[in-house]
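Handout, section 3.2

Students often ask what a structure token actually looks like in practice. Rather than define it abstractly, here is a full record for SIMPL domain-containing protein. The first block is the sequence as you would receive it.
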Amino acid sequence: MTAAPFSHNNRPLIEVTGEGKVSAVPNRAIIVLGAITESPSLAIAQSENATAVTSVTNALLSLNIPREQIQTVTYRIEIQYNYEDGTQIFRGYKVTHLLQITIDRVDQTGLVVDTAVKSGANFVSSIQFTISNHEIYYNQALSNAIQNAESKANTIARTLGVTLIRTPLNVTEKTRVIEPPTPFQASLLTEGATVPTPIQPGELEIRAVLGAQYTYF
């Protein structure tokens, strides 16, 4: 932040950066999970994978998750090799099929993961939490940012022994940031877990940064 006596048409200016933050509890979870199968036969690997993913999808639908909120985000076939004495030896095929599930009840995140794993999923790629109405929170962060800018400008004005004109001459929006809590990461899972998966969404932080110019006398 700077004080520039003659920076705008010979009008004295105080130029500051204002920052505002708002925390919000997520109301939406985005889960990416699915099945990875391997076999020397591509047909078998694909068949086993299709069976697992179909079972997972049906189980998720039974939780009243709309079909349009369950979509494929990755389908990949890879050739697997072993290496012996520098020689590449064909081992088989690896088929990966991942689904993205979007739910509006974050308290059901653990249930969704457990249901999918019990139904054939053996890989959870990520779980991310977000909010559907982030614009409301961002506007509050903007309001906090302008208050922060005015506070900084007042501090400079008092230090200089001048009077600040509270209405800024110019305001420029600079940065909009939504910082989610650390995503839940998991890898290969095994069936048979007896304890429900505890997943806590934490809080999101919505941040706004702006620049403001004030005059004084």
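Discussion prompt for tutorial groups: Residues 39 and 45 are 5 Å apart (CA to CA). How would you have guessed this from the sequence alone?
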